Amino acid sequence: MGIFELKGVTKRFKDSLILDNISLDIPEKSIFGILGINGSGKTTILRLLVGYYKANKGDIFYNNKKISKVKKKLKQEIGFTTQENSFYPKLTVEENIEYFGALYGLSSKTIQNNLNKILKLVELDHVRNKLSENLSGGMQRRLDMACSLIHVPKVIILDEPTEDLDPSLRKEILHLIKKIKSIGTTVIITSHRLEDIEQVCDEVAILHNKRIIRCSTIDRLKSDYSDYIRYEEIHLQTEAGNYEAIIKNISGYENHYIDNHRLIIKTEKAEKLLHEILHIIENTKQRLLFVEIQRPTLEDIFKELTKNNGKGFLKRE
Asked: Is the pTM of this model over 0.70?
């Protein structure tokens, strides 16, 4: 049993069914991702975990005890960062973190002992006296996380932490998430950005049509997916763009298309075929500008699984 366990949980809001009999086991000291499209119920799961919502049916356990029995412990040991900024714009970075420390019931001494460590962890020590409203978007997101970490929780829950950030800022947040795990904290994260989840998560649950249709490590998902689909993609671009000569001289690989001036070929034997293609390019005296082999991504897996609620996603014999 993990640090959190959901057993047969159903959640309704009036006549709307949001979650239908879901079960989850979230391992301790890992980064656990909950994937789903916007509006699929990911945030509802998080709010159930921290006790903001009550399940209509089923049970939720924290360290083997029903969360209804450990409300005080949940407050002491869980940090929750929402999609919306929780900090106060007119307070400095340091003032915000101190304020949230007081909300968690920490003494002034404990807040000060934790403050410097947290500021260094989230890399905001150099702007500790700056008004929060004057921080960059990435710094504001890190401040939100710092406010959730001041009481040194065992678990931090992050709801869409990279949403609305540009690629460089998203990279910063993903790096911070890995650092948080490295100090022994369990991280639970929701996202519809599958490329972000793929970079940081040890295990994921895929939420679709109100149910968990698959829960597994990413490595296991990729292994199963490769056995099911068995294709990779060769992406290449030549200066002349004479792709007809390439296609004409290879046999049995008709599944190809051209996208943004690049030839893309789907195949089960990418490395062998690429070796053949490179010889063709050399013989036709073309200049190669770009080439890579792309293997199945988490997004590919998600699309395949959600085609029919995970049915048919079976390993080939």
From this structure: yes
